[in-house]
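Q: Hi! First time asking for a complex rather than a single chain. Here are the components, and I think there are two in total. Is that enough to go on?
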Amino acid sequence: EVQLVESGGGLAQPGGSLRLSCTASGFTFSSYSMNWVRQVPGKGLECVSFIDSSSSPGSILYADSVRGRFTISRDNAKNSLYLQMNSLTVEDTGLYYCARGDGSGAWLIDSWGQGTLVTVSS
Amino acid sequence: EIVLTQSPGTLSLSPGERATLSCRASQSVGRNYLAWFQQKPGQAPRLLIHGASSRATGIPDRFSGSGSGTDFTLTVSRLEPEDFAVYYCQQYADSPRTFGQGTKVEIK
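A: Yes, that's all I need. Here is the structure of the assembled complex.
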């Protein structure tokens, strides 16, 4: 069974930083692309970042809203996905999901974690 | 970016009835890379349909997807109590991948 468990969310001040983590189990982590997707009440779902299975340059995508502030990375040896979030703004508040790509090479998401809540407020 | 518009915003139906949800794209979705997700309160989204019409693993056959190009439909043939939820479409053909705003299916 695919399991994705996020951690690292919490309260941060505007301009501050947080690092989200996602621990994966139940599948061969290194073979799958991974994503961070956030959900903001009233604004819906947004794909924040994507990283391919190879972690090679050119295989990483960011939403325009976070490019230059957020950095996605992965450690295949630890079955873990990360999101370093810097220069946070109140608009970054939301529930952040770790989500697995379907393994086909398309950008389809087929499994989600339960999410970790990020609140940016002074 | 491809904008997805879902309609209606809310659908009020009774168990056993048929639900028809629409998702319209601002431009053609390449290779019909259109997915549908179901989300219940307090839960993560769950993949129902991919490639516009292929059911994901373990999804009951009362769920079906259709459409191509810019117009897509999710149909639930006979609503079960557990089907009352919010449904989102998403295109995964182009970057950025985008979601519709959701359709809530509520008990009438």
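A: The longest strand of chain B covers residues 19-25. Let me know if you'd like any chain examined more closely.
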